[in-house]
Amino acid sequence: MVPRPLSHSDRSVPGVPPELAAASLDAAEDRLAWIFGSSRSGSTWLLRMLASLDRVVPIDDPHLGHHLGVWRPISLAWATAEHPPDLTTLDRVKHDKDSYFFSDRYRDAWEPALRRLIVERFDAQVRDTARTADPVVVVKEPGSHVADVLLSMFPRSRLVFLLRDGRDVVDSWLAAYRTGSWALDEGAFPVTDGGRAALVRWQSAVWAYRTDLVRRVFDAHPEDLRVMVRYEDLVADPEGELARLCRHLPVRASEQACAAAAARHAFAAVPAAAKGETKEIRSASPGCWRENLTAEEHDIMHEVMGRQLAELGYLDRTPAGAS
Asked: What is the pTM of this model?
């Protein structure tokens, strides 16, 4: 079977019937799903399980947010500013400046062109990798701080809000900023003991910002096109949560297929050499921040993220496996 692309295209695509190559984006937009929330929230694990299902085309970390929503101020500010700054993004600072490329004044010019660019890029990957007709294209963590921008361009796409306790997210990032870490090849660096507090504060601010924004976007999105998944629930019942998610996307997958995908990508199934403190696949134990971070770092996290943690129920939740 031949995959149907997301976009309208007049180009001839080898091996694709003209009626499928010319399918309109409006008719296919609900086959586009975004996993929003935060990095280090189990999104790679979730995408790998979904990618095991025939109808899913996975797109892993396209980093749209890092191009469309540059952080302001830069992260260095959390170590050098007189007071911890308020986090925002360049597009929000510059939106009312006419000469800014993505300005409000010229949105009618750049937004349709940006949408076409995103669709054409994703369609190319669909044509290369789809295993069935009409696949569901799942885009993992494209940059949750621009979730509102992306959903405004794709209002009938699907939203998966993958939520994880922000303290575990920060703990995971602290582990990534150490000697020998997997993240060093992607721009991270070994943090000094004196720099840990600033890094904790910065990562806490990023989680709080993204979580607030994705919550607002989630609440405004049509109910039939959105679903929330908590990382902690995914750890506790991966087969059940994966099956529930498939019904929302929708991905036609049997309970047996979901169970097989969950088993194939379970933490226990990962070779010992491919997981651990310096690996991208680190652990599957919610609540480890309690032991891994210091009391001072706990205080910083609760200062920065306390409101969001309370509103989302994390201050009252008991981590899986805890007594």
From this structure: 0.88
